[in-house]
Amino acid sequence: MNDAGTVITGNRVLIVDDEKAARYGMIKALKTEGYMLSEAEDGLAAIRMVESQSFDIVITDITMPGISGLELLKRIKETRFEGMVIVITAHGSERLAVEAMKAGAYDYIAKPYEIEELRMIVRKAQRHILLKMENEALRNELLISQGYRRFIGESRLMRHVFAMIEKVSKSNVTVLIRGESGTGKEMVAQTIHEQSGRKDGPFVSINCAAIPRELIESELFGYEKGAFTGAVGPKLGRFELAHNGTIFLDEIGDMSTDTQAKVLRVLQERKFERVGGGQSIETDVRIISATHRDLPKLIRESSFREDLYYRINVVEIELPPLRKRDGDIPVLLNHFLGLYAAKHRSPVKRFATETMKQLLDYEWPGNIRELINVVERCVVLCGTEEITPDLLPSDILRQQGSESMTVKSVMDHSKLTFQEAKQRAVAVFEREFIIEAMRMNDWNITQTAAKLGMKRQYLQLKLKELGINIQEVREFL
Predict the structure, then answer these.
(1) CA distance 64 to 43
(2) How far, in Å, CA of 389 to CA of 385, rounded?
(3) What strands lie across the sheet with 36-40, from one edge to the other?
């Protein structure tokens, strides 16, 4: 701890030895160095402390009753402990020291040792931890500065997501991505795949909630000819197509328990059978799952298998909702404004101050997906350089006090006469009304015209007059 009373990184040390005098000697030697020191009298006590507390360095004797120092080293390395382990061996026990180094020990010191020798090794371990953390921070900064490929955002929560993606991409563990609808779960899964050793293999995605339960097994595992009416030939399933790559099971919480049992078998045995077939097919896939549902609650309700939950949830990544990503919203808004202005060849360059205020105050229940749709909609509807509040969707306007705010924004920002403001308000209404009518009538011009009580030719003329490109509007609604 420094003079200001803050804990120095790499400063928390746990001393493990069954001899009280030995622990006392090490504590006395290191106390003057300013470390935060804890002690454990045996390996079991040390394991409990490592699991419940945070330590940077563990110093353990090799020879102890019960759990030896070597076994302790192996056990704590199986946890999420990422610190340094220093082992103390008896004179002439070089073989044990070598074995400990192979098992992941940072260094060793042989008895009898000098106090300064102990201090020097602990200092080296502390410097190693600091260097490791600095390198990690630099990598995270690089990821953030590059937008982590397709990601945009610099909030604390997103920095944590970037760091988690980098860590799990290096391994082959199963990953469960949790988050509200529209937060970008599939994008995270794709990024993990692209950064992994399987990047040259296929990335296969399936939304378990979008496929009827009676068809999901055929989609996942494929089927043989004659398996059911209409099966005129064999079909490869998603697990087969994802061989040597990654399969993304989106909304896995909506999968039936029968299908869950078959997915569990793929995880355990790396094999499955096609529907209507009896031959086992081996597959080598990494499974990444996602859900917006509370899986522990579904387990309690007996609608999700507990054994499958623990197999898919080796590492969990929680995606924050947009409303909690402080500072990211204006960055995202301006990014997509530039993107869609170029796509639609629009003159729009900015959001009006009042528009930006309303967008920042909005809760964004649909998260990133909703933000993208709102920005593209505004770009399509706007014919000037500035997006004013009257172009925002009714949901956002309702949250902000829609009607009065719309009138105020026209007066504050447009500098229009009454007649000009009225014409603009009518045009905005006509756009919204006609677009909604087209959507409700499956974008059929003849049917929409009949519903609106107008001739088809007049509706076509109105669409042209209002600058409504049906194909472009359909893409984001």
Answers:
(1) 8
(2) 13
(3) 36-40, 12-16, 57-61, 84-89, 107-110
Sequence-ordered list of residues with C-beta below 8 angstroms from that of 49, at least 6 positions apart, any chain: 14, 38, 40, 55
pTM score, two decimals? 0.54
Contacts of 146 (CB under 8 A, 6+ apart): none
> DSSP 3-state helix, strand, coil percentages of the chain (rounded to 5)?
55, 15, 35
Residue tagged 């960055």 (tokens): 331
286-311 tens-digit pLDDT? 999 999 999 999 999 999 999 999 99
Amino acid found at 36: M
Using only the alpha carbons of the chain, give its radius of gyration: 31
Q: What whole-number percentage of the chain has pLDDT above 90? A: 35
Rounded CA separation 264/241 (Å)? 18
The CB-side HSE value for 46 (13 A sphere, CA atoms) comes to 31
- Residue 399 has what pLDDT? 62
Q: Helix (H, G, I), strand (E, B), or coil: what is residue 205?
A: strand
Q: Which of 307, 317, 318 is nearest to 173 (CA)?
A: 317
Neighbour count for residue 87 (Cβ, 10 Å):
28
Task: Identify which of 373, 391, 379 has the alpha carbon closest to the alpha carbon of residue 342.
Answer: 379
Q: How many CB atoms lie within 10 A of CB 169?
A: 18
Of 334, 48, 287, 300, nearest to 172 by C-alpha is 287
| Residue 62 token pair | 């090799």
For residue 179, is pLDDT > 50?
yes
